[in-house]
Every structure is written in structure tokens, then in C-alpha cells.
Amino acid sequence: MTLANISAAHGSGSTLPLHGIRVVEIGNYIAGPGAAMTLGDLGAEVVKIEAMEGDMARHAGHYGNAMLRSFNRSKKSVAIDLRTRDGLQAAVRLIASSDVVIQNLRPGAADRLGLGAKALRKENPSLIYCSITGFPAESPSNARAGYDIAAQAESGLMSLTGDPNGSPQKVGAPIVDTATAQLAAQAVLAALLRKERFGGGETIDISLLEVALHLQLPTWSDYLVRGVQPFRTGEGQPLNAPAADLMQTADGQIVVSAYIESHWQRLCRVLGMPELADDPRFCRNELRVANRSAMKQALSTAFQRLTTDEAINLLADNNIVAGAVRSYSEVLACPDFSKSRMLIDVDSNEQEAGYQSFGLPYDMLEAGRSRTVAPPEVGADTRSMLAMVGYGEAEIESLARNHIVKIAMPETPVMQET
């Protein structure tokens, strides 16, 4: 079936690129749910099959709630006990009506349940099946549970992060999980295009470890060619200077990159220190790297006479790359942020008040953006989705009564402050 036919079958009226595509997500935390939500933001209908107790993030305190708000907008929740025969059959029927499955269960769990790619293609030969794991499918560690922090550690990323005289550190945000979500969505989009052009399904394997390696591609590329072990530098790049080097201003901090020789000479001139450009300690990039501390001390003399805004404006006016180091509150107050269209309003549903979150980090000006709604309660859509794939009301009630599925009870709508 072509994408055009799928769209016609599921309904029309939207110009979002994935309108008419149905995605089933069987996932927890960030990578799987994030990939599915990205497709939902592009117009797909996302059906989240949850365990009876829900996504594990629902039980992880404040940060778990943040994960739910961040990666589970505008989904439908169907709660099923997949360990039962009838529950598995319900899941298979849902998937048979869908175009894409994304799962990040523990390694091997989907196959043991009967929800692996080969089993599901018996009912849906053109299914696109995306499996997210911690480690590559054929690796000795493929059965290990994988989390963002393990991928940061085992990919070499932690070894490069932190003060050179301190211990290795993780990056301050779960960048491997979130990058995996986006790359998994990219792979699904490519598979959908392949299906449109040539027909047939696709199996996608993506691991956190491989994504973590890919995020370090320039550093790894240098190591693979030259064989020189990279090392922690704190701020700044190990092979260039000044490059992301931290400078103190009169009221804050900025990072500066001006390691190309013409940029370095221009930086020295605009700071009123032209003699630094030809200083024998700093006249070439390699020398600036070797004498980084002295270079930073010399530049700091000029920067400490300027406020952060003055320094940024001065460097920007002279085409020198720089950035102010901002806290989250300062980012929110920055005009660049307010003009980015990243911040979106998520509408309330019957259980949860609306809130603000981030949308996709790009705009499709012709297609526009989809309306977004707060994450559903566990099992909020069990009844309607099972009915959609042919279950009668009596069958659904029987499944619920025997604790094979969970149907969320209607609640009083959340009252929002005015």
C-alpha cells in the first residue's frame, strides 16, 4: 500500500507529512517513546502499548514525570498484559493494522513475547519494525540492559568529559537517549520512503552505544587515522585553540572559538591586543594549544573589562564565534530563545493540565505543526483501540474483568487556573 493510499484509508484533511501513518510503540523512558513521539509530531497516529502498570517512567518520581511530559504527548494509551495469550493476540491485532512498530523493551523480551519482527510480519508483511537496544544486536553485550549513562561510559564519551585533573563525567543531559530517539525516527522515515518506492517492510536495529559513538565522530575519526589517544580538556577542544575556551567577563562567562589563523588575528585586533597575534607562544594553532593557559590569561585581561553582552556583540560584529554561558532561567529570558518557536503549548486532557514543552527543533513552514495534548492515563484508549480492530463490547469487558487489559476510568476534568 502506498503512503497516499494509507492516508486515504486512515482519513484525510492534514498536510502533515505522516498523516495517515499509524505507529505502535512498546517502550519505556526516553529512546523508544521519543522516537514514536517525533513521528507523532510529524502527523502519525501513535498508539502506546503499555504494561498494566504503565511506562516505567510513570514510577520514577519528578524526573520520570518530566520524561512522560517530554516524550508522550498526543499518544493513545492501550494497557495490555502481554504475558497472557489473549493480551498478546490483542497486541498483534493492533499491530496488524499499523505501519510501524518501535520497541525498546529489554533485549530479547519482544521475541520471547512473540512480538519480534519475524513473528509480526506473518500478519503484516510490510511492517516497519524498529528495535532500540543498549548494545549492537550482534555484540557480546547484546543481552545487557542499556541506559544512556552506560553508553556514555562505554563509548569513550565520559573519558573526554570533565576537568583534565578530575574524574570522567557524564554529559549534563541524557543526550544519547534523546539522540537515539531522533536517529531512530530518521531511520523509520527512510524505511517509509523505501516502502513507498519499492514496497516491503524493514527491520531497523539501533543501539545507544552506536549512537554515542556517532556523536563523537570527529574525535573518533582523528583517533582512527592518527592513533593518538584523546584526553579531557575541560572546556576547550584538545586540538584547537581558542576553541570553545571559557573566558571570564565582567559579569559572567563566554566561550570563544577563533583558532583559524585569520580569526585569531582578528580577535587580537578587536580586543586591542594586536601584539598577541604574532607572539611566538601563540602565532600558530599548535603553539596556542601547547600554551593554552598563558593564551587564556592574556585574553582574559581584555574580556574582564567587558560585560558578557558587550563581549558577545563585539565578537559577533567582527564575525568571531562566541557564546554566552547561560543558566536555564537565562536561556528562557533570551530573545533568541523566544524567537525560536521551540516552546509549545501542550493542551490539557481529562487527567492532566496543559503545560509548556519543546517541539521539534525544526520548522516545516508549509506543513505547519500538529496540535499537542498531554500524555494519556494508562489505558485511556484501550476500549476505543480494541473496538477499532474488531473487538466487541462484551469481549473488551471480559478482557478487562480478567485483568488482561486495563481500561482507564473517566475522571473529573482538571480545573485550570485563570
Determine the fraction of residues in helical runs and give it as a percent range.
Answer: 25-40%
Determine the strand fraction and express it as a percent band. Answer: 5-15%
Oligomer: single chain
Radius of gyration: 26 Å
Features:
39% helix, three-stranded antiparallel sheet, disordered N terminus, elongated, seven-stranded mixed sheet, alpha/beta, disordered C terminus
Summarize the structure.
The chain has helices at 3-10, 31-41, 61-71, 85-96, 109-113, 117-121, 148-154, 175-198, 208-215, 217-226, 261-270, 285-290, 292-303, 308-317, 328-333, 335-338, 382-388, 393-401; strands spanning 22-26, 45-50, 76-80, 100-103, 128-133, 202-207, 245-248, 253-257, 321-324, 343-346, 355-358, 405-406.
Could you characterize what this model shows?
The strands form 3 sheets. This protein has a 7-stranded mixed beta sheet with strand order 6-5-4-1-2-3-12, sandwiched between helices. It has a 3-stranded antiparallel beta sheet with strand order 7-8-9, covered by helices on one side. The chain is built from 18 helices and 12 strands. With 418 residues, it is α/β, with parallel strands linked by helices. Helix content is 39%, strand content 13%. Strand 10 (343-346) and strand 11 (355-358) form a beta hairpin. Helix 2 (31-41) crosses helix 8, helix 7 (148-154) packs across helix 9 and helix 8 (175-198) packs across helix 9 (208-215).
Write the layout of secondary structure elements.
Blueprint lengths: L2 H8 L11 E5 L4 H11 L3 E6 L10 H11 L4 E5 L4 H12 L3 E4 L5 H5 L3 H5 L6 E6 L14 H7 L20 H24 L3 E6 H8 L1 H10 L18 E4 L4 E5 L3 H10 L14 H6 L1 H12 L4 H10 L3 E4 L3 H6 L1 H4 L4 E4 L8 E4 L23 H7 L4 H9 L3 E2 L12
Parallel strand pairs: 1-2, 1-4, 2-3, 4-5, 5-6
Antiparallel strand pairs: 3-12, 7-8, 8-9, 10-11
